[in-house]
Design goal:
Layout lengths: L2 H12 L7 H22 L10 H29 L12 H30 L1 H14 L5 H21 L2 H18 L1
Helix pairs in contact: 2-4, 3-6, 3-7, 4-5, 4-7, 5-6, 6-7
Length: 186
């Protein structure tokens, strides 16, 4: 059995433990989200991490950022019309908070787009694979229904763009922008 398949199966088996053992789950999730995807990501030649063609990457980053901005406008309008908008939370944020969100965004995109979505697209096809990966990423936020919905929609948009561009930077920037805005809004 390929270790990527084994990792994927282990991730799906560990996922329900999130609600039973919250603190312990976060430790296991941290190992999965940081170490394992990074090692495989560096070994794979199809995706570019540090050495990349600037023309392809900058174009795909622009596409991802464009979709993220459209999604943020939609979130803003929903927040305005529902009265669920908290700009005051920005004033208490520090630079380390932004760096944590950026790092989390990068490694979550590596996990959900690169591994989970990549495997699901191979098994079920492009549309079903993107939808299933987005649903899995949304399940992590289940007790908070608004965050689950936001991450489901974000996963669909970013997953589709990542599937077409194979660029992790654009997905990371989009994830960072949307997550930061979602934290402010919810």
């Amino acid at each position: 059995m390929d270790w990527k398949k084994l990792f994927f199966i282990l991730f799906l088996l560990i996922l329900p433990l999130r609600w039973l053992l919250n603190d312990y789950f976060l430790t296991a999730y941290t190992v999965f989200i940081f170490i394992i995807p990074f090692v495989q990501f560096l070994k794979n030649k199809d995706y570019h991490l540090f050495f990349f063609d600037k023309e392809d990457t900058l174009q795909s980053v622009g596409i991802n950022v464009g979709y993220a901005l459209v999604f943020i406008v939609v979130l803003f309008l929903v927040g305005v019309f529902t009265g669920n908008f908290g700009w005051a939370i920005i004033y208490g944020l520090s630079w380390d908070f932004f760096m944590k969100i950026l790092l989390i965004s990068f490694f979550q995109e590596m996990l959900f787009r690169y591994f989970i979505q990549g495997n699901l697209v191979n098994y079920f096809g492009k549309i079903a694979g993107i939808a299933a990966a987005s649903l899995i990423s949304a399940v992590l936020f289940y007790p908070d229904i608004w965050m689950s919905i936001i991450f489901l929609l974000m996963g669909l948009v970013v997953g589709w763009v990542f599937s077409n561009t194979k660029d992790i930077y654009g997905a990371t920037i989009s994830h960072f922008m949307i997550y930061l805005f979602a934290v402010i809004m919810v």
